[in-house]
User: Fold this.
Amino acid sequence: MKSELVELPVATSDGIFLAHYSERGLASLDFPHGNGLVSPDHAGRRKVLSKQVPLPVLRWHKTTTDALKAVLSGRAAKSMPPLDWTGKSEFQQAVWRAMLKLGPGKTRSYGEIAGAIGNPKAVRAVGGACGANPIPVLVPCHRVLAANNKIGGFSSGLDWKKKLLAREGIEF
DNA sequence: GACAGATGAAGGA
DNA sequence: TCCTTCATCTGTC
Assistant:
């Protein structure tokens, strides 16, 4: 089957994020690497040039750009592009949906997220699902803290998590 | 099937 | 308080 990803850069004041779109929607989002440069890993990845980008993807990309900039400045995204979670487990999707409900400045603990999806004991699994989140920032995994307001962890780097939380006025 | 993980809670020093 | 240990659940190899 063809599941070619369209790869488009998202320029923000924090660097150039890299968005990957499938025919279903936004599939993943990469944090800027170093000084906004794309990692060598992406160099060899098959991608579609901007000229060939389908119209729906261009619309999604605009929405994604707006949403990303809004979240990075501590505001709520006005609208979200469709998210492509194909191939992900039901559990992971449930965790991510629960996180999408968190507005700016709101936080939950891993235990509370676990409870929200009806499995209060699955706290460690929630941590695993957060780490597997392909769309950080837009799926606000940075708003999930450990118990007692501790920072917990962040797969893309604790610095990003701290920065994002600080912009939303969250104390931890 | 075994193991690891971005946790949480309880018990002891 | 702080540290250690154990219970629990899911994903990955």
In short: Strands of chain A lie at 6-12, 15-21, 26-30, 108-109, 144-145.
